[in-house]
Specification:
Radius of gyration: 23 Å
CATH superfamily: Alkaline Phosphatase, subunit A
CATH class: Alpha Beta
Distance between the termini: 27 Å
Order of helices and strands: EEEHEHEEHEHHHHEHHEEEEEHEE
Strand content: 5-15%
CATH topology: Alkaline Phosphatase, subunit A
Number of helices: 10
Number of strands: 15
Shape: globular
Helix content: 25-40%
């Protein structure tokens, strides 16, 4: 049990306390995670009486699942995890599986319908495809941006848009390019480069300048480490004001940033100009390091939440109708199919349409891989203590895909789960809930929105109408929202 004994109240630290240092005469600063000395005696609110922050994170993977391998056989808290959900076993007490829900704005174009419904609640707006198979834009603000407007977070970043794979659809309009939209004509681009995301979040303690050009490495790496050393010295001075538990938390926080920097430097850098052969983001055979990039981005999101740099994140692991490749699934991974074709560097969307045993086993194992990477994100959030719980306990994570099963572009019974407790606003121990009446998936988004806003009772509707379809709802999903 966490020791909640603290120093006298006059020594309490404000939530916005920063570590400071100097590198080459330049000031560097670093935000802190939530420490016990910043909390009230019960550990449930800040020392000044304000509530702990709640966060919203939307997360997606492309091209659906295999429903027979995704939907658990039983409902309730004592269900058995399905094969595709097994990678999330460590967090089964902290997420709810929602099945049997329908898309009320479906009927025009599968991947576009799913993205718009799950991540905004609005029907999409069709665009001139200009030679592409289809094109569209969101019909309204996305869920994350609606949350931003209700929360109005006084944070460095109102929201973050994170991506992993760089192989994504770019010719079918903004609906398939990003999850985050301020409005129909305001898509927010995703950052897919871990080094650039690191710089964006922690530029305040990254000293400017750097050595000469070093194409094989980050030229500012030495200065970044020097900046961490500088704030580490300030952290040591802070030790006398905080408890033993807080000292451990400070050390863990700085260790995490050192680890992130090492991970970033291990990923092949992306050049602004077309790179020469051998300097691409990919291995020589075209392999994209999805798991490595995801691990860094997951850590960065956790640190950004912990330091209250932002409270809203959209996170696209693989894209809708995307061309992502799964190099970890060569023919040797399928001994039950001797002589099977090699799809390890094929467009996954193309494979998803082949309703044959080998191809659908490939799709199933690709979904398992995606869930392993979602588990990494949940690991990072659940590893950071905050008050009497963890970051995950104070977050709402909505995870889903753009279609149900890729081979048919099906639009009912989407694979959806909601993780975290949103500070107690989301129900605990639901397990697997299956809608018996085909409730709207937009109700799920509405529940997630109400779970993180300061005054849920003020949010009376969600979604909207357009193009002859209605996604508007006034009923948040009762299976998850308290």
């Amino acid at each position: 049990m966490t020791d909640r004994r603290k120093l006298p109240r006059e020594l309490a630290l404000p939530r916005r306390t920063l570590l400071r240092g100097l590198v080459g005469g330049a000031a560097v600063t670093l935000g802190l995670p939530l420490l016990d000395v910043m909390l009230d005696d019960g550990g449930t609110r800040h020392a000044d009486g304000s509530p702990l922050p709640l966060r919203l994170l939307t997360w997606m993977w492309g091209n659906g699942c295999r429903l027979d391998q995704w939907v658990p056989a039983a409902t309730g808290p004592n269900y058995t995890l399905s094969t595709e959900l097994e990678p999330l076993a460590a967090h089964r007490e902290k997420f709810t599986v929602l099945s049997g829900y329908r898309n009320p704005v479906a009927g025009r174009r599968g991947h576009h319908d799913g993205m718009a419904a799950l991540f905004s609640g609005y029907p999409f707006i069709g665009l001139d495809p200009m030679g592409a198979p289809y094109a569209s834009k969101f019909g309204g603000r996305s869920l994350d941006q609606q949350a931003v407007d209700w929360i109005d977070p006084q944070t460095m970043f109102r929201s973050l848009q994170v991506g992993v794979t760089k192989r994504h659809v770019t010719n079918q309009g903004p609906t398939l390019e990003t999850m985050s939209h301020r409005g129909p004509d305001q898509p927010l681009g995703m950052e897919r480069d871990p080094q650039k995301m690191f710089d964006k979040l922690f530029g305040a303690f990254t000293a400017p300048g750097g050595g000469g050009p070093k194409p094989e490495a980050d030229p500012d790496a030495a200065l970044r480490i020097a900046a961490l050393d500088a704030v580490s010295r300030d952290a040591k001075r802070l030790h006398s004001r905080v408890s033993a538990n807080d000292r451990k938390r400070l050390e863990s926080h700085l260790d995490s940033l050192f680890t992130v920097q090492k991970q970033i430097l291990a990923i092949p850098p992306e050049c602004d100009l077309p790179p020469p052969p051998g300097k691409l983001d990919y291995e020589p055979d075209g392999t994209e390091p999805l798991a490595a990039i995801n691990a860094v981005m997951a850590r960065l999101v956790a640190v950004a939440f912990a330091c209250d740099l932002t409270r809203v994140v959209s996170f696209m692991f693989t894209g809708p109708s995307g061309a992502q490749q799964f190099a970890m699934l060569p023919p040797s991974a399928f001994p039950e199919f001797p002589g099977a074709p090699d799809y390890s560097h094929a467009d996954q969307h193309m494979v998803s349409h082949m309703n044959l045993p080998y191809e659908q086993l490939y799709m199933h194992r690709a979904t398992v891989f995606c869930m392993q990477n979602l588990a990494k994100l949940l690991d990072e959030l659940d590893a950071v203590q905050e008050g009497t719980g963890t970051l995950l306990d104070n977050s709402c994570v909505l995870a889903g895909s753009d279609v149900c099963e890729g081979w048919s572009h099906s639009e009912n019974d989407y694979p959806i789960l909601v993780a975290g407790r949103a500070g107690g606003r989301l129900r605990a121990n639901v397990g697997h809930h299956r809608s018996s009446s085909g409730e709207s998936i937009i109700d799920i988004g509405f529940a997630c929105l109400k779970a993180v806003v300061p005054n849920p009772e003020l949010v009376t509707e969600y979604g909207g109408d357009g193009s002859g379809y209605s996604g508007r709802t006034t009923t948040p999903c009762s299976a998850i929202f308290t």
